[in-house]
Design goal:
Elements (H helix, E strand, L loop, with lengths): L3 E5 L4 H12 L3 E6 L3 H4 L14 E4 L5 H8 L4 E4 L6 H4 L3 H21 L4 E7 L7 E3 L5 E2 L6 H5 L14 E3 L12 H19 L4 E6 L1 E3 L12 H10 L5 E2 L6 E6 H13 L7 E4 L4 E3 H11 L8 E2 L16 H7 L7 H12 L8 H10 L5
Parallel strand pairs: 1-2, 1-4, 2-3, 4-5, 5-9, 9-13, 10-12, 11-15
Antiparallel strand pairs: 6-7, 6-8, 12-14
Helix pairs in contact: 1-9, 3-5, 5-7, 8-10
Length: 372
């Protein structure tokens, strides 16, 4: 059965891939996107990669009229529209709260008047802050933000309240949120607002907590996009990827095709509504290892990552997902190995031009006292 799906922020990285998937399944796709300059460039043009079969409506998710128009005839909504980036959120507070929180509220207000069959909202691993740790007795440990004094001394690993060693383990959806940045708070508000309104007005709603998504079509000139795109922009310009702390912090890198799979399942599976799911590859890796693997993939193994030994306000040490719930509930199974994903990314990168703005972004953080 053909449905019309509205994707907010759908002209971007994840949204455009999701649009391709939905079109291939025979659905109609409408996109509401502001074509934000930081992502799409000064011209604000329809991106070449966006399928011509996508109905693009240029507009702001904070604009009630634009949202109402975009919702006409829509059966389902995937809400991806957001300002992204932990660091930038700490000094562009109004923009982030406006687009992420107010934008979500405007969409939900419209959905109260015009409910849809499904709502899927993009959340983030950022809401966890530090991931789950076990103490020396194998018990879950409550780990908060690392003290600034500890970070300035280059002691990166969180420690137990008694000073003991902690072991990072996969983080389940039940882990207590640790909202260490404006962006993390935004994403938590987005998912909670959506689930509250969804339950109250009988709009089947699912929140997906994405880990570090990577793949083709990322905005390479946006210094606050996914970490692999940031590293790629450096490598394309013959510069070393810059890594904070010692590079041994662990994350999960999930290919955009697997992110799209999670969105499709959330739109269709009968057990998806009312739930929150982690979305990752299920494999944790150090940031340093991934940067080195990317350098090899793009043919620049001679460029070693630059380990800065610096830190940023709101950064966390280790966080990687337990994906048992989405596997067992929706049948989600990551399909793209990192080596294959990086090979695909490398092929695409060979045809791209990236303006490296990483050092400019680093100065922005430093001059505001947000890095040390």
């Amino acid at each position: 059965m053909t449905h019309r799906v509205l994707i907010t922020g759908g002209a971007g990285f994840i949204g455009s891939h999701l649009a391709d998937e939905l079109l291939a399944l025979g659905h109609r796709v409408r996109v509401l996107d502001s074509l934000e300059e930081q992502v799409h460039g000064e011209q604000g043009r329809r991106p070449d990669y966006l399928s011509p079969d996508v109905e693009l409506q240029v507009g702001d998710v904070r604009d009630p009229d634009a949202v109402a128009t975009a919702l006409k005839g829509a059966d389902s909504v995937v809400h991806l529209a957001a300002r992204v980036g932990v660091g930038q959120s700490m000094y562009q507070v109004g923009d982030y709260v406006g687009v992420n929180d107010l934008g979500t509220a405007v969409l939900l207000q419209a959905l109260i008047e015009k409910p849809v069959d499904r709502l899927v909202v993009a959340s983030s691993m950022s809401i966890y802050g530090e991931g789950l740790y076990l103490d020396e007795e194998g018990r879950p440990a409550d780990v908060g933000a690392r003290p600034v004094e500890q970070l300035k001394a280059g002691r990166w690993e969180p420690v137990a309240p008694n000073g003991g060693t902690l072991t990072p383990v996969a983080t389940p959806e039940t882990h207590r949120p640790g909202l260490a940045s404006v962006y993390a708070l935004n994403k938590y508000v987005q998912e909670r607002l959506s689930l509250i309104i969804g339950e109250a007005y009988n709009i089947p709603t699912t929140a997906l907590r994405f880990w570090n998504a990577y793949g083709t079509r990322q905005a390479l000139s946006n210094p606050y996009t996914g970490v692999l795109a940031i590293f790629a922009s450096r490598l394309l310009n013959g510069k070393a990827p810059m890594i904070f702390e010692d590079g041994l912090q662990r994350r999960d890198f999930v290919h955009v095709d697997d992110v799209v799979q999670s969105c499709r399942l959330a739109l269709t599976h009968e057990k998806a509504p009312g739930k929150v799911f982690n979305v990752g590859s299920g494999v944790s890796r150090s940031v340093q290892d991934v940067a080195a693997a990317l350098a090899v993939a793009v043919g620049r193994p001679d460029i070693q990552p630059e380990i800065t030994g610096r830190c940023r306000v709101g950064d966390i040490r280790h966080c990687f997902p337990d994906i048992t719930l989405i596997r067992e509930t929706l049948g989600f199974e990551p399909r793209v190995e990192l080596s294959d994903g990086l090979a695909e990314l490398s092929d695409w990168l060979s045809r791209q031009v990236a303006e490296d703005r990483v050092e400019q972004a680093s100065r922005e953080l430093a001059c505001r006292g947000l890095s040390a």
